[in-house]
Write a structure and sequence with these properties.
about 350 residues, alpha/beta, Aspartate Aminotransferase, domain 2, Aspartate Aminotransferase, domain 1, 2 domains, seven-stranded mixed β-sheet, four-stranded antiparallel β-sheet, binds pyridoxal-5'-phosphate
Length: about 350
C-alpha cells in the first residue's frame, strides 16, 4: 500500500529498522541520553526559548491535548477555543469535561480565522487561547502571527496543537509567543503512533508548577521532574522514543526543521500541480503543506477513498461526519516522493477515464 494519509504515515528505512530491534530496558544512563538528545533537538526544531522543556507522553496526540488543558487551566480561567473542525471540537469537549470556562469561535469547514472575528474578545477578561495550528480535519492552516499578536495584546496563555503542522509548516514558538506546543509521533515525525510531545516555554513550566493536576498519568509536574534526569514517571513507549531519536537526528543532519518543511512544501506543490485539470476542488481558504483537502465535483469522496484503497493499493484520508461524502484528503508528510505523487495522480486520472470521478 502507498500511504497518503495524515497519520500514521510511512516511515523511512532507518526508522523501521529500529522497530525490528529488541526493546531495551530504560532506567539506564544510556536511555536518558537518548531522551536528553530528543529534548534538545525538538526544542531547536520548534524554536523554543531558554528555559523551555519537552515532555514525552505515551499516548496519542489527544493525550497531550488533554494534559495541556488539565495542567494549564482550571475553573478560574476563561479560555477562547477555535473550533473549525473535529480537532477544535475536541478542545471544546475537554474544556467542558474538565470544568474550564470557555467560549468557542465556530468556523465553517474550510473557513479561515480572520482578525475581525477576534475583535469581540479584545479586553474581555480571557486568560487562555486554544487552537489547532492546522485543523487537519478540514485542512485549514490558521494565521498564527495574527493569533499570537492577539494573545500578546490580551495577555492570553497560548496553547497550540501543532500535531500535524510541526515540521510541515513554519512554526517558531518563541517568536509566536506559544506557551505550550503539542505534536505527535505519527505525523510529520513519521514514526509509529503512540507518543505525543508537549513543548513548554519557561512561562508554561512555571504555570504548570503552580497547578495541581487531577490526573496522575497526565500530571506534567511529574513528567517535568522525571525529565530532569532524562526519564519518564512510568514505562514509556521505549521503542518509539528510540525511533523518534533516529528520525530527529536524520532531520538535523539534513539541515534541520527548515529543510524538512521545505521538502514537504515542495511535495505538496508538486501534487497540486499534478492534479490540475481533474474535477477536484481544493477546499480551504488557507492551506497547510501537510495535506490537500479535495472535493470531487461529481462523485462521493468516500467512494474515491474506497476505490483507491481496494483497486489501486493507495490510502488517502476519508473525512468523518457530515463531510464524509464531500471531502477526502491527500497527505504530504511521511516518507513520500514525487514519484509517489505521480502514482496517485495517475490513479486519479484513471478514475476519471473510467467514469468514476
Ligand atoms: C492527528 C491530530 C491530533 C491527534 O490525534 P490522535 O489520534 O490522538 O493522535 C490532534 N490534533 C490534530 C490537529 C491532528 O492532526
Amino acid at each position: 500500500m502507498l500511504n497518503f494519509t495524515v497519520g500514521p504515515v510511512q516511515s523511512d528505512e532507518a526508522v523501521r529498522m529500529v522497530g525490528y530491534e529488541q526493546v531495551p530496558y530504560f532506567r539506564t544512563a544510556e536511555f536518558s541520553e537518548v531522551m536528553f538528545e530528543n529534548e534538545r533537538l525538538v526544542k531547536k526544531m520548534a524554536g523554543a526559548g531558554d528555559g523551555s522543556r519537552v515532555v514525552f507522553i505515551t499516548g496519542s496526540g489527544t493525550a497531550s491535548m488533554e494534559a495541556s488543558v488539565m495542567n494549564a487551566f482550571d475553573r478560574t480561567d476563561k479560555v477562547l477555543v477555535v473550533n473549525g473542525g473535529s480537532f477544535g471540537y475536541r478542545f471544546v469537549e475537554m474544556c467542558a469535561l474538565h470544568g474550564v470556562p470557555y467560549t468557542e469561535i465556530r468556523l465553517d469547514p474550510g473557513q479561515a480565522l480572520k482578525k475581525d472575528m477576534l475583535q469581540p474578545y479584545e479586553n474581555a477578561g480571557y486568560t487562555g487561547f486554544l487552537v489547532n495550528v492546522h485543523e487537519t480535519s478540514t485542512g485549514v492552516l490558521y494565521d498564527m502571527d495574527m493569533i499570537s499578536a492577539f494573545c500578546r495584546r490580551n495577555r492570553l496563555f497560548l496553547v497550540a496543537d501543532a500535531i500535524s503542522s510541526f515540521l510541515a509548516d513554519p512554526i517558531d514558538m518563541e517568536r509566536m509567543g506559544i506557551g505550550m506546543m503539542i505534536t505527535g509521533s505519527q505525523k510529520a515525525l513519521a514514526c509509529p503512533p503512540g507518543v505525543s510531545l508537549i513543548i513548554l516555554s519557561s512561562e508554561a513550566v512555571e504555570r504548570v508548577q503552580g497547578h495541581k493536576c487531577g490526573c496522575m498519568y497526565l500530571d506534567l509536574n511529574l513528567a517535568l521532574k522525571n525529565g530532569e534526569r532524562g526519564q519518564t514517571p512510568f514505562t514509556p513507549a521505549v521503542g518509539i522514543l528510540r525511533q523518534i531519536n533516529v528520525r530527529l537526528r536524520e532531520i538535523e543532519a539534513a539541515g534541520g526543521a527548515e529543510k524538512e518543511t521545505a521538502k514537504i512544501a515542495a511535495l505538496a506543490a508538486d501534487f497540486r500541480r499534478k492534479i490540475r485539470g481533474l474535477p477536484l476542488e481544493i477546499v480551504s481558504e488557507s492551506l497547510s503543506n501537510a495535506v490537500t483537502p479535495l472535493h470531487p465535483v461529481n462523485v462521493s469522496a468516500y467512494d474515491i477513498f474506497l476505490t483507491l484503497k481496494d483497486e489501486y493499493e493507495i490510502w488517502v484520508c476519508p473525512n468523518g461526519g457530515e463531510l464524509a461524502e464531500r471531502i477526502f484528503r491527500v497527505g504530504h508528510i511521511g516518507a513520500l516522493t514525487e514519484e509517489d505523487n505521480s502514482i496517485i495522480a495517475d490513479a486519479l486520472r484513471d478514475l476519471q477515464v473510467r467514469g468514476l470521478m
